[in-house]
Amino acid sequence: MILITGASGNVGREVLKQIAQTGAHVRAAFQPSSKAAAPAGVEIARVDYNQPDTLKFALKDVDRVFLVGPPTAELPPLERKAVDAIAQSEVRHLVKLSAMGGRQATFPRQHAESEDYILSSGVPYTFLRPNGFMQNIVNYNAPTISTQNGFYGTEGDGRVSQIDIRDVAAVAVKVLTEDGHAGKAYTLTGPQALNNTEIAQMLSEVLGREIRFVNLPAADFKQALLSAGIPEWNADALLDLQRLYREGKAAAVTRDVEEILGRKPTSFSRFLQEYREAFQAGGQAAI
Ligand SMILES: NC(=O)c1ccc[n+]([C@@H]2O[C@H](COP(=O)([O-])OP(=O)(O)OC[C@H]3O[C@@H](n4cnc5c(N)ncnc54)[C@H](OP(=O)(O)O)[C@@H]3O)[C@@H](O)[C@H]2O)c1
Question: Collapsing DSSP states into helix, strand and coil, what is residue 7?
């Protein structure tokens, strides 16, 4: 049995969708308060990492786990609690959704700390370290793209080798259903590194109208995030990540996705064509 945590989230939902098609025995973990929606044949469990008994119950008969933590200040303590429960179970392979970037910015640093904790737990692991998700432009920027023909940030002309969440999920499914991945860390990127001006140009071509990227001073962008209701910790972490992007430190392109999937990762231009409806007025969230 394979347990998919974070099943309501951007990545977990897509992993669940893809792994359900393999015929593997799968259980999906949703928080108690979250609406649970799983493909036919998938068991549902209620898990809150803050309530270790819920995870203990969900881990019954499970030998592999896909571990997802939320992108909040609470990620390290929540994942430590999850790892403690997993270490006391029969699980023999823990696949952790991590992040590219080492300890160079807040979000990836949190994941690096979690990786360290997993290493010290002795549970066999695989770390998946994706770069920024292509779907972020849909989930965070589509509203201003559809209404103002523009999107905002502080990345300057820094290039990022963003990856499609569907490719992250395809790698996760392979790693969860094949042998030979224990003890490995994979850095997952798209096929090329692009800056936001180049992405705006691609969007303009796909949508048939001019889209602009507007680079803002960090203080102005932070104020806009706070005004939109983003908690201050998250705003600061996002600005720190965009600082990494601006410095060109998230531009590496790796071959890990192609080596695992036997095909090239999705290009940004194909992604934009497939999600073009999301940038029209009334568009939907990415996945
Ligand atoms: N966005 C990027 O570009 C990017 C790049 C690299 C890595 N990552 C990492 O990828 C991970 C997942 O991202 P995502 O976009 O899929 O996040 P997400 O959509 O926010 O999903 C997080 C999941 O964790 C669940 N969760 C929250 N608190 C929990 C708790 N106490 N106990 C159990 N489950 C809990 C959430 O459940 P509810 O829905 O019920 O809240 C949700 O299913 C994050 O750790 C992020 O740092 C993101």
Answer: coil
